[in-house]
Amino acid sequence: MKKTLIYIVIAAVLVGLAAYKISSNKSKQEAEVAEVAKEVDKINVNVITVQYESINTDYTANGTFLPKQEMNQSSEISGRIVSVLVKEGTRVGAGQTLATIKRDAIDVDVSQAQNNLQNAIIDNQRYENAYKTGGVTKQQLDNSRLQLKNAQAAVRAQSVRISDTSIRAGISGTINKKMVEPGTVVSPGTPMFEIVNINSLKLSVLVDESQVGKIQLGQQVAINVNVLPEDSFSGRITFIAPKSDASLNFPVEIEVQNRGNLKAGMYATAIFQTNNGAETQNMLTVPATAFVNGVSSGQIFVAQNGVAKLIKVTPGKVYGDKVQILNGLKNGDQVITSGQINLDNGSKINIIK
Fold it and tell me: Boundaries of each YknX-like C-terminal permuted SH3-like domain copy (predicted)?
């Protein structure tokens, strides 16, 4: 009887311990679930701490080199090419003959025009003499003089046709492309040679409206060429467009003297000094990605006590991927740089380290 009582007591104790353990585990699980639920409600974000830093204030713009001059040399008349005197890569001077067109038929027309001119000269002389003695009227003399002028004009026209059988370069430069061969039949306007002059080149870039007022014609500009990183180049601004494009950018051209290693079509970066020669300034900046709906909105989220607060700031100039902040932030503020699309003012946040 006594043993039975002891077993009952031990069993009761074990049951009590098991019940306590189950209850304890349940409370712990509920606490963990509650903590997880709190974290689930939070939105993961990245932040940066705002601070003053030295920013290079030089303005840069990318573009490509264009030839100072280029043209497609074409034919003025119809005919068959007899000879081509240049090849691709040949340097030519303005007025140099590049090709010739068959002129047999034109020579016949020239002979006929010259014969007609001789006849007109003789006829006119006869009418001039006859008019002096009253043998012809003034009207007949005027018709004779007109025929003489027409005959002279016809000879000049045939001379022009003869000249046009020699295709001459319109500019000095290099033959970049040859589109004809001996035997090719051409007509007026048919492109025959592409000529480019790269003794000097034009770097064509687009300058933002906020910077265009700080540059001027004749200003020297440093230039970096991507494929020639070891070389340094500079140029002179020769053109600033009076009107912007649809994106409020102004086309600007910079003339660069070619030392022989630049080619048309190369990609380059122009570096404009826009701050009276100073290269850096100490300023408060944030990444452009921190702005909600773009820099122009002036809205960013800051992290305060575990929540996201939407504030209004005054953005300044843009330097690459960073934006100057003129007002609305102070040194040490934490600005949210990613995850803004999921945020509302007052959203709980989890800062990702």
Answer: 284-350
Distance CA 178, CA 72 (A): 10
Give the tens place of pLDDT for each residue, 206-241.
998 878 888 899 999 999 998 998 888 999 999 999
| 340 part of a folded domain | yes
Q: Which residues of the chain have pLDDT under 50?
A: 33-39, 277-278
Strand-pair partners of 322: 287, 319
Query: Do 91 and 140 form a contact (C-beta atoms < 8 A)?
Result: no
Structural domain boundaries, residue 233: 60-67+197-272
Q: Is residue 148 part of a domain?
A: yes
* pLDDT at residue number 352: 84
Whether 20 is covered by a domain: the verdict is no
Got the DSSP string for 274-315? Answer: -STT--EEEEEEEEGGGBTT-GGG-EEEEEETTEEEEEE-EE
Q: Under a CB-based contact definition with an 8 Å cutoff, are residues 163 and 25 in contact?
A: no
Q: Which residues contact 80 (CB under 8 A, 6 or more apart)?
A: 101, 102, 183, 184, 185, 186
Beta bridge partners of residue 221, listed in sequence order? 235
Q: Which long-range contacts (C-beta less than 8 Å, at least 24 apart) are formed by 175-181?
A: 175/86, 175/87, 175/88, 175/89, 175/90, 175/91, 175/92, 175/98, 176/70, 176/88, 177/88, 178/84, 178/86, 178/87, 178/88, 180/81, 180/84, 180/99, 181/81, 181/84
For residues 249 and 206, the answer to whether their CB atoms sit within 8 Å is yes
Q: What does DSSP say about strands 314-319 and 322-327: parallel, antiparallel, or unpaired? A: antiparallel
Confidence (pLDDT) at 277: 46
Contacts (Cβ under 8 Å, ≥6 apart) of 261: 228, 231
CB 340 within 8 A of CB 293: no
Structure tokens at 149: 């002028």
The reply to whether 318 and 338 lie within a common domain is yes
Q: Tokens 């090849």, residue?
A: 87
pLDDT score of 27: 56
